Amino acid sequence: MSHSYEPAARQAWQWLETVARFSETRDPDREGVTRRCATPEHRDVLEALGGWMRELGMAVRMDNGANLIGRHASATPGARTLLLGSHQDTVPHGGKYDGILGVILPLALIKYLQDHAIELPFHIDVVAFSDEEGTRFSSTLLGSKVLAGSFDDAMLEASDDDGVTLREALEAFGCRPERIAEDRYAPEEVLAFLEVHIEQGPQLELEDLPVGVVSAITGIERHRLTIQGLAGHAGTVPMHVRQDALVGAAEVIRQVDTLCRETDDLVGVVGKIENAPNGVNVIPQTTTLSIELRSPRDEIRRKARDTLLERIDSALTASRLGFDHALTYEQSAVQCSAWLSEELQGAVRDSGLPPRVLFSGAGHDGLAMRSLCDIGMLFLRCEGGISHHPGEAIEPEDLTAAVEVLVHVCHRLAKRHAAV
């Protein structure tokens, strides 16, 4: 690996350390980073990013969805645009790298291109999306939906815990939400969208690899299941005649875990439980569970759903328990574009590394951007696979590897462009 990539990587590390301080929490290493859409911390991040972009000679603007966009312009007439970026917002007490890494590393790429006077036949727009996590307004993928043209104006009426609507927050932030539709990119002007993100899992670390190429972004579905039993005195009702809703819930949890363990490319969790009457000496009458299933292949996820519901029905019926079920959320999987994934794998090989292809079990801005253009993702190794937690950590050397891969991707896309 060439040492010429290290200055850009060192700069990326310094930038990451700086932006971590723009948080509602005071100590990002212990309390994590909390940064929500259209807040003072969001403004501070955009001011810092905008300043660094201008120092790199980029043209900078904020759109009406509070996305910050910096353009590294090509001298080629009629050039298309390669979009690079990720989200600036975090979950409460999140880590220092989820999201923002995918903004900072593209800026390090621009630094490398500038330092080495490399001209490209396409523009590069680096985007800091305003809101992917949905922490403040439950408005998942807000920023990327604006660029992709799939933003629903009804989202503007969503309110935060203080009753402030998204519309009001954006207006106070200097945006004109009534003009969001004008901020959409034209598909014919876009070459592709590429996002760099920490893996949020342990696979790259287990295989001692700094980067990996993403094949797909997982599909997700969520269910609410309410089990109906019969309350009674826990000291007087014999065990063999009880209709204990919580015991039924334990069987449901076992069924979810068993199904996911026996099915390739499927993960799931029962993440939330509500129990009633919830007394120390009362047999539970109703227990409500959340069930989530994820897979990069929708056919696997949907087949698993059918199997799971059949098993749940059989198990609860045998225990003389009833249940109500509702599908509360469903997001189809998104496949990364084959040609862009191939170029990413080639760029990894160009960097002297073996290409590892894996799918993302988490959602990303590419879910929205896929309706605009072809998408690709590059994962960066993270320590222990930890994310959404103050313990999020990366290695500085991996930043060097990622910068090199991004440079090789640009060279490959330039050759591809010349061949068209």
TrEMBL record:
Swiss-Prot/TrEMBL keywords: Hydrolase, Manganese, Metal-binding, Zinc
- In Swiss-Prot or TrEMBL terms, this protein is called Allantoate deiminase
Cofactor mode of binding and number, as noted: Binds 2 Zn(2+) ions per subunit.
Q: Which Pfam families match?
A: Peptidase_M20
- List cofactor names only: Zn(2+); Mn(2+)
Q: Where does allantoate bind?
A: 222, 281, 294
Report the family membership: Belongs to the peptidase M20 family.
Quote the EC number: 3.5.3.9
* Subunit field text: Homodimer.
Sites binding Zn(2+) 1 sit at: 87, 98, 197
- Enumerate the GO terms in the molecular function aspect: allantoate deiminase activity; metal ion binding
| PANTHER family, sorted | ALLANTOATE DEIMINASE-RELATED (PTHR32494:SF19)
Query: Which positions bind Zn(2+) 2?
Result: 98, 133, 388
